[in-house]
Amino acid sequence: MCIHIYVEYSVLNFLKINSYLYHTLQVESELFPAMRGQTLLLRSVRLDEALVTSFMDRAMDIFKANTIGPQLYLNSYKKYSDLLNGTADHAVSAFLNERHSLQGFENVSGKRVV
Questions:
Q1: Rounded CA gap, 65 and 113, in Å?
Q2: 33-75 confidence digits (pLDDT tens)
Q3: Does 65 map to a domain?
Q4: How far apart are CA 50 and CA 58, in angstroms?
Q5: What is the spatial distance between Cα 26 and Cα 22, in angstroms, rounded to a whole number?
Q6: Which residues contact 112 (CB under 8 A, 6 or more apart)?
Q7: Which residues contact 46 (CB under 8 A, 6 or more apart)?
Q8: Residue 84 has what pLDDT?
Q9: Which long-range contacts (CB under 8 A, 24 or more apart) does 31-34 make?
Q10: Looking at the structure, do residues 17 and 58 belong to the same domain, yes or no?
Q11: How many domains does the chain have?
């Protein structure tokens, strides 16, 4: 879910920047004084162009491929979340407050204690 929000935010920012640059005079008008009287507007890219779409798709594939590793790394620590949120302390305290016997253990495990 978080990845999709990041992607949408990135695309919206790209569109916003692109819209601002659409009619902005470029540096070439200052670098080449002979061309100063001419309107030097470089056409900005649009998301519906095939080349831009191709690059965006490729970038998204790379982004998605690189987010799997960190997510798997974080998921490997989910089994320890009880230690962080205090649930483990409550479970251990509740277990220690109960009465336990070997007979009860045999009933639960189905194995005979020697």
A1: 50
A2: 777 677 666 666 777 889 888 988 898 888 888 877 877 888 8
A3: yes
A4: 12
A5: 10
A6: 106
A7: 18, 52
A8: 77
A9: none
A10: no
A11: 2
Residue-wise DSSP of 28-74? HHHH-GGGTTS---PPPP-TTSHHHHHHHHHHHHHHHHHHHHHHHHH
Please indicate, yes or no, whether residues 61 and 86 belong to a single structural domain of this protein. yes
Please indicate, yes or no, whether residues 12 and 51 belong to a single structural domain of this protein: no
14-29 exposure pattern, b = at least 16 Cβ within 10 A, e = fewer:
eeeeeeeeeeeeeeee
**40 with 52, same domain?**
no
For residues 109 and 112, give the distance between their C-alpha atoms in angstroms, rounded to a whole number.
8
pLDDT recorded at residue 56: 84
| Confidence (pLDDT) at 43 | 64
User: In terms of residue numbers, what domain contains 63?
Assistant: 46-98
Q: How far apart are CA 29 and CA 18, in angstroms?
A: 20
